[in-house]
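Now for our specimen.

. . .
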Amino acid sequence: MTQDRADAKRPRIVVVGAGFGGLEAAIRLSKAPVEVVILDRSNHHLFQPLLYQVATAVLSPADIAFPIRRVFRNRPNVVVFRANVAGVDLDSNEVVHDDGTRTSFDYLILAAGAGQSYFGRPEWEAFAPGMKTLEDAARIRARVLQAFEDAEAEVDPEALKSHLTFVVVGAGPTGVELAGAIKELAVDAIARDFHRVNAGDARVLLVEAQDRLLPAMSRESSHAAREALAKIGVDVRLDTRVISVTREGVTLEHGGHHEAIRADTILWAAGVMASPLGSSLGVTCDRAGRVVVEPDLSVPGHPHVFVIGDMAAVTCAKSRQPVPGVCPAAVQMGTHVAKIIASDVHARHRASGSPPRPAFAYFDKGSLATIGRAKAVADLWGRHFKGFVAWCLWSFVHVFFLIGFRNRVFVSLSWAITYLLYTKGARIILGDPESRVARRVE
């Protein structure tokens, strides 16, 4: 898919990935005298922080996705193409597509995000899916809901326990939110819908290898999150490693002791691995596959190529700490790179030298995580919040950063209905998830 130059006088900026960082960079560059080409394998921007709510039947997929083209409908210098990018040829300044065609660029912004990391055990993915796309969330939702369907039809007591056991691996924000939402789904939303089995008896385990939940947040918030999860019945296992994942369940190791747990549903939220596009650049990457970039986020030796978001390994210019792989950081990186490119373009038009490039400095606005209905933790402005206040802050921030008026309204209404009626309206099983019933009721 070789793209013809619409205007040879305008520099072409190719943005690979329309996540938080790529979208922010493209929006800001749309105001500059440049041509922007966005390449993404999906036609929508995804609000990933709310994926777990699609997986647990709170929201529908369309509530957290927005068409990329709609964002740029009034910005004629931005074109959008669905494309699978296979690599980058830095010698010829071209992006290589999976069909062998190429797109040339004057500047390149790689913002292709990250996938799940199974720490050298990729075979676990078949039994413990991660959650990075709408398709992932829909499959997990089907698997979770099918587990309750299987429990209703089951007469074998051991198989019944397996149907109603859910294991979430990884206690970062996604894992904490997912574990709380599954338990809340079972106890509040669907318990009365099943007549042969008590869905509220569902056992939810949250497994974390470190010594506390939410390791990126304060210890106060970590402690409050653990207390909130315990109150709703989530079994939290800290300092516990997963050493085996199979179709039948998981084997955990804690203090040298092993425990085998039968579970039909195992969900992975433990680690990330940057897009393999970074390795195609032929530069240094860290163990998570992130490109070790210059302080201005450019690729070493290639000042016209930038890597941002989950693909970038960079140290904050002010704190001298590694920049975390979170959405606010990606947005700030997109803004930073857009300013640098716009400044270079303006300098070129004036036939003057490019100004010095500033190093990227991440401004940490705080962290939030929700545990369930009216339960959350927040670290904001140097203070710690929990409970209903933190939940209100979490709700406001997430609605505010959603793209599209419709999405903001629908998400707000869904949350209001869920809060008032203790129900979840998106309990639809799509596809044909495997049934694990051992002995079906006659």
Remarks:
- DSSP finds ten helices and 25 strands in the chain.
- The domain at 122-270 is CATH 3.50.50.100 (FAD/NAD(P)-binding domain).
- The longest strand covers residues 35-40.
